[in-house]
Structure formats: C-alpha cells, structure tokens
Amino acid sequence: MNLSKYLHQPHRPDCDCSVCWSKRELAKHALSRSTPCNQCRRATASRVNGRTVVTPASYCEKHTPSERPPKWWHVVHDSGKPTPFVPIHEPFELEG
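RE: above sequence
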C-alpha cells in the first residue's frame, strides 16, 4: 500500500488518536465562565421620574468573578533561583 492510500484511510469509530480526540473535544459545547446563565442578571440602567436608576449585575456562584487574577497572571516564566552576578574586575585571557 502506498503512502497516499494509507493517509486517506478512515479512522475506526473508537479511535483514540490525537486527531480523533481533538475532534470529539471540539465538538462538545462548553460554556465559558464569562457566558451568563439564566440565574445571572445583567446590570441595567433605566429612567424613573427623570432620574437614572442602575441595577447592579448579580451572578450565580459558578459565574462570580474571582477576587484575584489567575495565577499565571503574576508569573510569566519561573526559571528557578536567580543566578548571582559576579563582576570581573581584572581582564583575563582564554587558555587553549
């Protein structure tokens, strides 16, 4: 069998390769934490007797924003303990 025939073979229904797994995961409809559900209420502003009345937003327990940013926000790359800087005051020549 040549390579082009092999590459175009259909996968088994129970295939667990990365391509089939990715297709299954992307097909699942996952709601984002930022998508409000039917228990959440958006903030509204309305005019009553010439005054603007603002109703603040309320969120269910699942969609309540965190008090602190995600952990990755603080640390971009942790390369371990810092290496101390040792200045060289005397010029040197490489041996070799």
